[in-house]
């Protein structure tokens, strides 16, 4: 097949993009160069596919294989542009979000923590790289205890427990604060802003 290399390259690209849920949290500081490379690959593949379609117009669609390949690849790449995190939302498949808390730091760094309905949690931090922490949680009274924590590349120690509190300021989107503590000696804690809370205390 004349366009085998283009089909293989695009298929590999689409596979990588649609599986980012499973590997992006392991990149750490490599996230920026990897996603830059993927963006450049996207532009190059789209340009090549578009060129093939233009050539098909000039040939008055005599090369049916060129027409089929170029249109198919352009449609797939356009769909990827609308769904840059992948066509399948693996995050939703991993469980319903009962609590979502986030906070934006300096240089647009963002931390998002999600507690799932299957008693697992995932925290993703995006700051000149991507770091992901996963584990399970247990609710006792008004306290959320984190257990079986799998640390990210740049995370040395995770929080032992968290407590839901009123937010330190008013906002339509922020409905509370999640104060997380490293241990019982941690008196300051670290605050995340809760934007969704369907937890039920046990």
Please provide a written account of the structure:
With 202 residues, this protein is of the alpha+beta class. The protein has two domains: 4-82; 94-197, Lipocalin (Beta Barrel), CATH 2.40.128. Helices cover 35% and strands 30% of the residues. The protein has helices at residues 4-18, 20-23, 31-58, 64-82, 90-93; strands at residues 97-104, 110-116, 120-126, 130-140, 143-150, 161-165, 176-181, 190-197. It is elongated and about 75 Å long.
Set out the fold topology.
Layout: H1 4-18, H2 20-23, H3 31-58, H4 64-82, H5 90-93, E1 97-104, E2 110-116, E3 120-126, E4 130-140, E5 143-150, E6 161-165, E7 176-181, E8 190-197
Antiparallel strand pairs: 1-2, 1-8, 2-3, 3-4, 4-5, 5-6, 6-7, 7-8
What descriptors fit this protein?
202 residues; Lipocalin; eight-stranded antiparallel β-barrel; elongated
Structural class: alpha+beta
Q: Helical region count? A: 5
The N- to C-terminal Cα distance equals: 62 Å
The geometry reads as: elongated
Mean pLDDT, all residues = 83
**Tally of distinct domains:** 2
* Order of SSEs: HHHHHEEEEEEEE
Strand order of the largest sheet: 1-2-3-4-5-6-7-8
CATH class (first level) name of the largest domain: Mainly Beta
Strand percent estimate: 25-35%
Question: What's the Cα radius of gyration?
Answer: 22 Å
User: What is the fold named in CATH at topology level of the largest domain?
Assistant: Lipocalin
Main β-sheet description: 8 strands, antiparallel, barrel
Helix content estimate: 25-40%
CATH architecture field of the largest domain: Beta Barrel
Poorly predicted regions are: none
Number of strands: 8
